[in-house]
Design brief:
Length: 463
């Protein structure tokens, strides 16, 4: 019996997704560059549901026509290699879905190149890590609608469920829209992780709370409005011990990155959209990797330790508020970037659907997405910043956010996301900013001109 679908790449994501697809009643052919992984996979999970192919030709031959293949390999050169390898064995009308974290411009290039050969190509963001891939990921497919229709049924069956039980998959839009949305999802993920790390740092460095107490504070956060997948697994990470020692105390404080946060920030800079919380998180990871320099400077620039003026119980309440407001701002910045990209790249994004698809399976799933989704359902193309809901939330949490940032500054604790998001908000609510001085300076040294507040036109000063 021919297979319904083929999966190329049996790494963490490919093997989990292959098992998920097979569990929904599909026959799946699998192929991997190094054949040992196929043998291992078939030995471990092999039954009537799988066919393990050694050569790419067998793999392609084993599939029902038109063939449907999901590629799950690292973005960039590996994806390009794997595509070249498989395309020579495919026929016109066959379809490939790239489920890796590809750069959206590569996805658009592959789509155009493959179209010339009659192959249909779908770029699909997949979120949820190994567990998501196995039990239900959040899926963000984009490209030609026909390409989506090839995979629609299978994707609908393997996806996670949103808050109302619908599959967390929707056609995101044209060209590289799927991978663009996934890129921004990952940018938000950077900011979310950074602000949680900042909260941990504040409790540890200013209040010197015992590790187990910090764990309980995070557990409390997870049971309130901050409920999210990342808050939830932060409790798992905090709880883990080796003997009596928290594992966290043994993990080196250098954060890795694979590039999606950087791409999000580059895009934000290119399109002129401020994403300070997200971009701050990318800088924070860069700074974390400067371990030797930090260790040297810590000895050379000592600081005076001050006693906190706010009780730890009151600070925890402020912190919960600041994290909540900052979370909203992380999503707002991602959405503002997506709005600009929609205009720039003509994706035809469906904003309420994006927030619905992020409700289940993905790394940034959070209870806050329920309210954000409702707002966008009412006004799909309006900025969340203009909603009365947002303005009300700001009123509720603003002062707490300010106290948290002020406390961090007076105790020398660096904040990249919580601080950047507060400044973002302060700037947005300032009808007057000091950009008049910048314009004056630009005109003084470079005759760049300026607008006046009292009459229209372009002016120069007689400096
Ligand atoms: P992984 O565990 O490192 O597996 C990588 C797979 O790619 C292996 O099967 C490897 O084959 C294959 N591969 C590498 N170079 C290749 C090449 N030149 N030609 C053909 N195959 C090649 O990676 P993963 O975590 O499964 O990630 C797969 C994709 O999903 C990536 O784009 C990743 O960014 C994305 N993703 C990952 C996660 C996650 O949480 N891990 C979440 C969402 C998306 P060999 O066995 O021969 O080396």
């Amino acid at each position: 019996m021919a297979s319904h679908i083929g999966i190329m790449g049996l790494g963490t994501m490919g093997s989990a997704l292959a098992r998920n697809v097979a569990s929904r009643g599909y026959k799946v052919s699998v192929w991997n560059r190094s054949h040992e992984k196929v043998t291992e996979f078939i030995t471990k999970y092999g039954d009537q549901s799988f066919y393990g192919a050694e050569h790419i030709e067998d793999f392609v031959e084993s599939l029902d026509a038109p063939r449907k293949i999901i590629l799950l390999v690292p973005a960039g050169a590996a994806t390009e290699d794997a595509l070249q390898n498989v395309v020579r064995a495919l026929s016109e009308g066959d379809c490939i879905m790239d489920g890796g974290n590809a750069y959206f411009k590569d996805t658009e290039r592959f789509q155009n190149q493959l179209k010339e050969q009659g192959i249909v190509f779908l770029g699909c963001g997949v979120s949820g890590g190994e567990e998501g891939a196995l039990y239900g990921p959040s899926l963000m497919p984009g490209g030609e609608r026909q390409a989506f229709e090839y995979f629609e049924e299978i994707l609908g069956k393997i996806a996670a469920e949103d808050f109302s039980g619908k599959a967390c998959v929707a056609y995101m839009g044209k060209a590289g829209a799927g991978h663009y949305v996934k890129m921004v999802h990952n940018g938000i993920e950077y900011a979310e992780m950074q602000m949680l790390a900042e909260a941990y740092d504040l409790l540890k460095r200013i209040y010197k709370l015992p590790h187990d107490e910090i764990t309980e504070i995070f557990r409390g956060f997870d049971q309130g409005p901050l409920d999210s997948f990342l808050t939830h697994i932060a409790v798992d990470v905090l709880e883990k011990k080796e003997g009596a020692t928290p594992l966290l105390n043994l993990i080196m404080d250098k954060a890795g990155q694979k590039g999606t946060g950087l791409w999000t920030s580059q895009e934000a800079l290119t399109l002129g959209i401020p994403t300070p919380g997200i971009t701050g998180a990318v800088f924070a990871r860069g700074l974390s990797s400067l371990k030797d320099l930090r260790t040297e400077l810590a000895l050379k620039i000592p600081t005076q330790e001050l006693a906190p003026v706010i009780t730890s119980a009151d600070f925890v309440k402020d912190l919960e508020s600041a994290l909540y407001l900052s979370r909203i701002l992380n999503f707002v910045q991602g959405l503002e970037l997506l709005q600009a990209a929609n205009t720039e790249h003509h994706y035809e994004l469906n904003f309420p659907e994006i927030l619905r698809v992020w409700q289940g399976g993905c790394i940034i799933r959070a209870t806050a997405l329920k309210d954000l989704h409702e707002i966008l359902k009412q006004a799909p193309n309006e900025s969340i910043l203009k909603s009365t809901w947002f303005q009300k939330k700001v009123q509720e949490h603003f002062q707490s956010h300010r106290r948290v940032v002020a406390t961090a500054a007076s105790h020398g604790v660096p904040l990249f996301t919580l601080n950047a998001n507060l400044s973002y908000l302060e700037a947005l609510r300032s009808s007057v900013l000091p950009a008049n001085l910048i314009q004056g300076l630009r005109d003084r040294f470079g005759a760049h001109g300026f607008e006046r507040v009292d009459e229209p036109g372009n002016f120069h000063g007689q400096w």
